[in-house]
UniProtKB/TrEMBL annotation, chain A:
The keyword Isomerase does not apply. One of its GO terms (cellular component) is cytosol. It comes from the Bacteria. It comes from Chelatococcus asaccharovorans. Keywords: Kinase, Membrane, Transferase, Transmembrane, Transmembrane helix. The keyword Flavoprotein does not apply. This is Dihydroxyacetone kinase DhaL subunit. GO terms for molecular function: glycerone kinase activity. Residues 15-207 form the DhaL domain. InterPro entries: DhaK_L_YcgS, DhaL_dom, DhaL_dom_sf, Dihydroxyacetone_Kinase.
TrEMBL record, chain B:
PANTHER family: TRIOKINASE/FMN CYCLASE, TRIOKINASE_FMN CYCLASE. Pfam families: Dak1. One of its GO terms (biological process) is glycerol catabolic process. One of its GO terms (molecular function) is ATP binding. Keywords: ATP-binding, Kinase, Nucleotide-binding, Transferase. The lineage of its organism: Bacteria, Pseudomonadati, Pseudomonadota, Alphaproteobacteria, Hyphomicrobiales. It comes from Chelatococcus asaccharovorans. This is Dihydroxyacetone kinase DhaK subunit. The keyword ATP-binding applies.
Length: 214, 329
């Protein structure tokens, strides 16, 4: 969230793109068992397996991806997730990345990034016919979108912490979307696995950017 | 975990391959395409396509054939197939009369089939199956999920499509069928997703999970295990509460095992369910008993009741030739 104001961001270097792709994929792989454990409590116990299949498909294309411009990477990553994950997570994360890709070229400051991020969140709501408060990925994405839109100066560390707080805040919610909704009140008291995945990916992106783009 | 498998990640592909080998007279599996289609397509007939996560076998791949599905796309275990896969299946069986998709009501399935539908540019409609009655529909959930009643919807729509019914007439029939088909299930154990190696949840020897779906997931409530007659009475009463039952109507009853319950228990349950249904004033005139819409190795069963009229009864009786269901031809 650095303070360029007029021109669009210069594209990231191939080295940074590689670090971003590798770190997001590694983070999901490292937490795959935890994601599956969370899903066993409220779903059918395969979220980690599915996310891991998705990031492995991305990893396999790293060499080709880093040669592309960032919007094309986001587009391709979204497509890879949709075509490899299946279930609910494929369309949800895939739609988010593919929507970010659409206007990413216009990113030049926090305000324009906020617009792009907001469009991504709205596309996920539309795809899943969902809204905030239903114990889903949206409960992580929507508060972050709100933070960006507020226009308050925002550090990568603060953004990262907000993602964790938002994921944590899904615990007391009763699920109203996805398989967890079939549990009714028994879904209360569990961290939403999809929200945890979103948190992990956002934290991974922030940590690479904080290191590489001082 | 003890399973007859090679590698967990190859289960779906290798199992479909085996199905195609043992039923090569009626089925074709496109290598790498992750769908099964009928060997002989009916020209000018509406294509009936379904699919979903694997692990519910014989649903859906076992119901591909004459008088039922034209193609079934199978996702990973308990995971919806992807849009590209669904589009490939549709394109392989569409012959100009349009496509009818049969989708079980789960967010993942609905989203992937929606994305696939957006990618197709010919006449295409979907029927959403919502037969499970265990979840109160109070706007706080995704709505009723699709479970064993899917078999009945696929069989009857398949028969009508085989007779040349057009897409709009099939839609009306499908919606009517969904409205008069309801199910409820009980699990005695959970199941083991092979990649996880351990059961999704544990149940004590004296407990059962009421209102389960078909993914070895927890149900609505956990209660003390009861005898078959009492379980049957409970399931039947819940199902009938959700059906527009008229006096002395005819009914089709599906006693569906979840994969690990032997036929001797399912037949016994058929007797218990028959008593409960007759006691409620309905006349069971058609039965299907067996492991048809399963959750890997989950033990337990579901009861599905479809209210029959002459038209639906005739379509149920119409010839069908699939790997899992065959009669009349």
């Amino acid at each position: 969230m650095s303070q360029h104001s007029d021109a669009s961001f210069p594209d990231l270097s191939a080295a940074i793109k590689r670090r971003l792709i590798e770190h997001v994929c590694e983070t999901i792989e490292e937490h795959a068992e935890e994601l599956t454990r969370l899903d066993k409590a409220v779903g059918d116990g395969d979220h980690g397996i599915n996310m891991s299949r998705g990031v492995r498909a991305i990893s396999a294309e790293t060499e080709q991806l880093v040669q592309l411009e960032t919007p094309r990477i986001l587009q391709r990553v979204g497509m890879i997730l949709v075509m490899n994950i299946g279930g609910a997570a494929g369309p949800i994360f895939g739609t988010f990345f593919m929507t970010l890709a659409k206007d990413f070229r216009t990113a030049r400051d926090q305000a324009s990034l906020a617009q792009i991020f907001e469009a991504g969140v709205e596309s996920v709501c539309a795809r899943g016919k969902s809204r905030p408060g239903q114990k889903t990925v949206i409960d992580v994405l929507a508060p972050l979108s709100g933070l960006l839109l507020s226009g308050k100066p925002l550090s990568l560390a603060a953004f990262s912490e907000a993602a964790s707080a938002a994921a944590e805040a899904t615990i007391p919610l009763q699920a109203q979307r996805g398989r967890a909704s079939f549990l009714g009140a028994r879904s209360i008291g569990h961290l939403d696995p999809g929200a945890r995945s979103a948190e992990l990916m956002i934290k991974a992106v922030c940590s690479v950017l904080a290191k590489e783009c001082k | 975990m003890k399973k007859l498998i090679n590698r967990p990640e190859d289960i779906v592909a290798e199992s479909l391959e085996g199905l195609a080998i043992s039923h090569s007279d009626i089925l074709v599996v496109q290598p790498g395409a992750r769908f099964v289609r009928r060997r002989t397509l009916g020209r000018g007939k509406v294509a009936l396509v379904s699919g979903g996560g694997s692990g519910h076998d014989p649903l859906h791949a076992g119901f591909v054939g004459k008088g039922m599905l034209d193609a079934a796309c199978m996702g990973e275990i308990f995971t919806s197939p992807t849009p590209d896969q669904i589009v490939a299946a549709i394109n392989a069986v569409e012959t100009g009369a349009g496509t009818l998709l049969v989708v079980k009501n789960y967010d993942g399935d609905v989203m992937n089939f929606d994305m696939a539908a957006e990618m197709c540019d010919h006449a295409l409609r979907s029927i959403l199956v919502t037969d499970d009655v265990s979840i109160p529909i109070d706007g706080r959930s995704t709505g009723a999920r699709g479970v064993a009643g899917t078999l009945i919807v696929e069989k009857i729509l398949g028969a009508a499509a085989e007779m040349g019914w057009p897409l709009d007439r099939l839609m009306i029939l499908g919606e009517r069928l969904v409205a008069q088909t309801k199910s409820m299930g009980v699990a005695l154990t959970s199941c083991t997703v092979p990649a996880n190696r351990t059961p999704t949840f544990e149940l004590n020897d004296d407990e059962m999970e009421l209102g389960v779906g078909i993914h070895g997931e927890r149900g609505q409530t956990r209660v003390k295990l009861d005898n078959a007659d009492a379980i049957a009475r409970h399931l039947v009463s819940k199902v009938l509460q959700c059906l527009p039952v008229s006096e002395s109507g005819d009914a089709l009853i599906l006693i569906n095992g979840f994969g690990a319950t032997p036929l001797i228990e399912l037949n016994l349950m058929a007797r218990s369910v028959d008593q409960a249904v007759r006691h409620a004033g309905l006349r069971p005139v058609r039965y299907l008993v067996g492991n048809y819409v399963t959750a890997l190795d989950m033990a337990g069963c579901s009861v599905t009741i479809t209210l029959l009229d002459a038209e639906i009864e005739a379509l149920w009786d119409a010839p069908v030739h699939t790997s899992a269901l065959r009669w009349g031809c």
